[in-house]
Amino acid sequence: MANIGCIPLVEIIEKKINNSEMKAISFYDYMSLCLYHEQYGYYVRSHTKIGKEGDFYTSSSVGTIMGEMLANYISNQPITKNGQNISIVEWGGGTGSLAKQVLDELQDNHYALYERIKFISIEESDYHKQLQVNSLIEHQGKVHFLTGEEWLSEKHTEHVIIFNNELLDAFPVHRLIYDQEEYYEIFVGWDDQAQKFMDKYIKCTNPLLLSYIKNENLNLKQGQKFEINLAAMEWLKKLMASLTSSTIITIDYGDLRDEIYAAHRMEGTLMCYYKHQASQQPYSHVGEQDITSHVNFSACISVGDNMGFSHSYMSQKEFLYQSGILNKLQQHNISDPFHPIVKKNRAIRQLLLSDQMSELFKVLIQKNE
Question: What is the dotted CATH code of the domain comprising 59-171+230-367?
Answer without folding.
Answer: 3.40.50.12710
